[in-house]
Amino acid sequence: MSVQFSVQSIEYLTEKLNNGRCLCDEPVVYLASKISRVIFNLLEDSCKFVRKCRRNEMVTDDFAFALKLNHIKPIYGYTTKNIDRSSSFRKIKKDNRILYHIDDNIVALNDSITSQVLVPFDFSIRAHWLAVNGQQPITNENPIVDTSIRSVSQKILNKSRKLLSMEQQIYYKELTEMCICLNEKKRKQALLILSSDNSLQQVVSRVIIFISEGVRVNLSPTSTFDRSIILNFLLHMCDALLQNENIFLESYLHYLLPAILSCLLERRISRDHWSLRDLAGKCCAQMIRKFSTAANRLQQRAVDIFYRILISSEEEYTWPSQYGAFIGLCEMSHKVIIQIIFPLIKQLGEKVRLISDRELSLKMTEVIVKFITIAYRSVQNDNESNEKKLYEDFGLYFAPLIQRQLILLL
Amino acid sequence: MHFSSSSTTSPSSQNQISNTTNSNNNVLFVPSNTSKMSFIIPNNNNNSSQQQIVSSSNILSATSNSGMTASINLNGINTQTNSTANISLSSSGQTSQTRSPFLQRPATDQQQQQQQQRTTPSQSSQQIPQEEFMKILRVLQDNNMTESIETLKKEYQSLFNKTTSSISEPYFNALDGYIAYVQEQPDSSRHEFAQLIYPLFVHMYLDLVEKDHLEEAQRFFMTYVKNTLLQATVFASHKDDLFRIKSLVSKEQIAQSEYVKSFRHNGRYWIKLCNASLELLDQFLIKQQKYPLLTKIVQAYFQLEINDGSARNAETQRLLSGGRLGEIKTEDNTNRMYFGLLRDHDLTRILQHKSILASSAGGDNEDGAGDDQPSTSKNRKKLKKDFFNQRQSKASLKVDPNAPQLTRIPIPELREHERMDLINTFQEDYSRMLKITPDNLPSCCYYTLLNGYLEINCLEISEDSTLLAVGGKNSIIYVYSLNRQKLSTMKLPHELERLDKSNEHVYEQMMTNDDDNNNNKDDPSNNDSDILHNQRILCGHTGPIYGLSMSREKWFLLSCSEDCTIRLWSLLTWTCLITFRGHTQPVFDVQFGPFGHYFASCSLDKTARLWCIEHAQTLRIFTDGCNDMEALCFHPNSNYIATSSADRILKIWDLLESKEGQQLKPIRQMSGHKLNVCILKFSKDGKYLISAGYDRQIMIWDCSNGSLVTCLLGHSDAVFSMDLSRDGSILCTGSVDFSMRIWNFGQLIKDKDDGKLDTVQRITPTSKYELVTYRTKRTSTTLIHFTRRNLLLGFGVFIPPNETITTTTTAAAAAAAAAAAATTTTKAKN
């Protein structure tokens, strides 16, 4: 037989059991072949069990039963179920009696909840329609229909739904080209189409991929020259799409939102990045207003991101990023400003005051004051401006500025 | 003509040795017989050829012909020298160089020169002392010193006790010779002769191993198994066994091997040949005696059966091969089998009975009042009369001549509630049964069992499709209710006593009626797809469950397990009623008879047993030599069971007791599967047996004579489950290739009866009768069931994608690495 137990391992065992004396060659070779044969027979027997259980793989239990069939005591504790073998099986030996037991550890509830420990699931049965009148319905439970004759026609249908007609392809091409061309008039026209055409649904998936890919490429650090203008155009497209009431965007959010957020929170400073961030903030807020539900927790997730950036130190996120986060938060709603931004203003004031870059400092101050004032005004309806409270809330840096702004607005 | 044909075949056979033997044939026959026809023709001519050989080589003509009784081994080698001598003759005639590479050839050459000597040249001449030895031999031979030659040889062999390589030479030559002989046959009958190659090969290999020439044996094995021509034809249907044979490497192993036992000692290898082929073979093997080794094996282990007429076609023969001991004796399948259905237990009959009852009741009403007594007697009379009428009408309806007598196997009367249940089913469901046609394909509801991979062993569903039983590896049986009915238990004994037994609702009353509010509370809380809220657990076995069977009325559940026992569970009290002990090895399958009461089981202890739920002892034991029984199936008339065993032969057993002391023999045997059979089913009319298994073939057998009807092909992996629709016209099979296929069984049988079935090929590719394929997502269907209204239900355990497998393999790899490390350390130690 080609596969055999190595003579060495037999030698090793006999040596160990025989107080260091090795058997001579012949019995060792005999033993090796004998053992190989025994193993072969056992495997053959365990195959019977595998076959009976209608499986394709052998598990250790099958081998254990084969051992039992040959009146050999099975080895305990080697089941495939036990994932970590170290804590699986213990042997207690007392008065020449051996007891095996499973080491049943106490698992903390927290661990099982956070799925650090794999909890074996119980059986469950699910019923579904595999076929109705000879047709397999297209559901999650059924596999993707293959090449059997009956399903061919269906397949063609499915494909044709995904394929674009020639006209649509041309439409898509023209549209995207217009959207990023430098001709202001044409662009306006294209954006108008994006925001109003209800036949867009066919090409919308492509348009969205166009946007998200465009953002990805133009934001990448390898892009050599400044392309903020293209980003700007792309965001305008986003904005227009979001305004369109007739198309269904929900299934593409996972493309759209990351693109917008990366424009908003971009680290690098390009030429016209403030306006880009403003626009992205607006888009983001609009999207969240439109699509956020309790189920997808879109708003909460966005707030989490922005808040984390805003309260972190300057080393981690640059000021432009924090500016973006601030805009993003502020654009969402007054409620967000009041609940989340107001407590932060004092702290922000201290930080902004320390900014050495004059342009940056000015921009930050300007935008913070702008949003805070509006929100503050909506809360404090009565005209009497409580100066003391203002100082208390917003700190020394911002309070006078806001106060002045309030007066200006009046 | 012959010359040219053989010379064309010889290049085609890639074997070097077969080449030489081919040319050998030429040399032998061309001088004596000038045409090819010499094969088929008469003995005298052939005898002359025999004489020709003898005269040409001039060696012991007497012993080679009559010496079968003498030491065969010696004999074989002797004639072997004869033939090798001829080879060398021929080769020397053609090329003189071929001789020189083989040192063995000169030895035979010398023999030719010294033809008076009886020598057995059996030394491998790779060693130097051997050459010396040869020189001495030659000198001795030159001087005609026979005795000293013998003694020298003995001495030599005791000194250099090495295996003599040429011991395998006769084996090689004989088999090559036979293969070449087969190649020479015309296409139309070649396959007939090819049947012998596989068993010859196995016997030769075993012989070689038993003579302790392991290396030779392995060389022998590899030479032929690697031969692509043989692989495709002869060995294709015996792959499983070939692997097993290869693993036998010593005498003891052969003595112990169950496989050899069932191959060698269980009977003779059965081969069916047509008359002409048999005659030819007879000439080749017996009359010519060219390879006495072949003759000896054929005489000892083979049984040749002549079937009249011309040779069967190759495809049929290929389909029927695959059994461990060849094909089935035709004689074995000639006993009468009563495969018809029992009329009195037939549904129509019950229904008629019911209609009679109804009409008589109606009559009563018309009669109006009157005391009860006479009216019932009248009723009875009327019933009796109707019964007679009915019997007559039945007779006119043509009684099935193949049906067994009702009393052949005593079957208990149906209980009243069962009868009612049957009638109800008939009225409610059978009348609304969906007729499945190619235009109206069945809908399929699929139940996927999740998280159960490697844990769930078997599934069983009740006849009315309401209860699902799941047998687990953890020796627990789970019972689920598939409709939303509660699985209630029976009331306690003291409550039962209070019940009025004459009440017709007594069967409902005896069950505990859980509070309705409770039910109502439960229902809305459950999702519609959740079936699990209603589960019962049956504990008792101490090993994995391998088989389950539910009785028709849903009162009993049978389970068989690795712990060698069968348990009967009550589904009313949810307890174990009896443990049937008797099997000595794990029990692999158990099934209730169609009318309950009886059940059969089969086991790894190589027996199938018949039991009855009222006795703890076995009623019948059906033993099957050396083969494990793996699956079984009851005949719908409860008179027979079919089993499949490890030798891949299906057997049908008669449950009627045979003569005392005589071993029960199967009434039908069917060979044809190439790998193990997983599932068997009788057709609804009891006439056909359908079997399927690991070899992907779905084979349909005619019970009346055990012949193959057809073989359906289409699945790309093992078939594990099947069911027939309630009207018996549709067959559905489920496989590991994640698909279910639906076949038009009714059409097939109709075509067969009309004689339209392609009997030449006997193999039916998917397109002809397959209606549709349903595919599942990573679930291999292990149970298929048609509901009473012909809705198709599929059940399967979801197989998770390969994650777990990879972890286990990595673990195994780690273990292997550890082992390797251990060996290296030991090496270091040494």
From TrEMBL, chain A:
It holds the Pfam family TAF6_C. InterPro entries: ARM-type_fold (IPR016024), TAF6 (IPR037796), TAF6_C (IPR011442), TAF6_C_sf (IPR046344). Keywords: Nucleus, Transcription, Transcription regulation. Residues 161-345 form the TAF6 C-terminal HEAT repeat domain. Its main location: nucleus. It comes from the Eukaryota. It is found in: Nucleus. The keyword Acetylation does not apply. The keyword Signal does not apply. GO terms for biological process: RNA polymerase II preinitiation complex assembly. GO terms for molecular function: RNA polymerase II general transcription initiation factor activity; transcription coactivator activity. One of its GO terms (cellular component) is transcription factor TFIID complex. Belongs to the TAF6 family. This is TAF6 C-terminal HEAT repeat domain-containing protein. It comes from Rotaria socialis.
From TrEMBL, chain B:
Residues 171-301 form the TFIID subunit TAF5 NTD2 domain. InterPro entries: TFIID_NTD2, TFIID_NTD2_sf, WD40/YVTN_repeat-like_dom_sf, WD40_PAC1, WD40_repeat_CS, WD40_repeat_dom_sf, WD40_rpt. One of its GO terms (cellular component) is transcription factor TFIID complex. Residues 1-29, 83-128, 361-381 are annotated as: Disordered. Keywords: Nucleus, Repeat, Transcription, Transcription regulation, WD repeat. Residues 83-101 have a biased composition (Polar residues). Gene3D superfamilies: TFIID subunit TAF5, NTD2 domain, YVTN repeat-like/Quinoprotein amine dehydrogenase. One of its GO terms (molecular function) is RNA polymerase II general transcription initiation factor activity. Transmembrane segments: none annotated. GO terms for biological process: transcription initiation at RNA polymerase II promoter. SUPFAM superfamilies: Taf5 N-terminal domain-like, WD40 repeat-like. WD repeats lie at residues 538-571, 580-621, 622-663, 670-711, 712-744. Pfam families: TFIID_NTD2 (PF04494), WD40 (PF00400). It is found in: Nucleus. Residues 1-26, 104-128 have a biased composition (Low complexity). SMART domains: WD40. Its main location: nucleus. Belongs to the WD repeat TAF5 family. This is TFIID subunit TAF5 NTD2 domain-containing protein. It comes from Rotaria socialis.
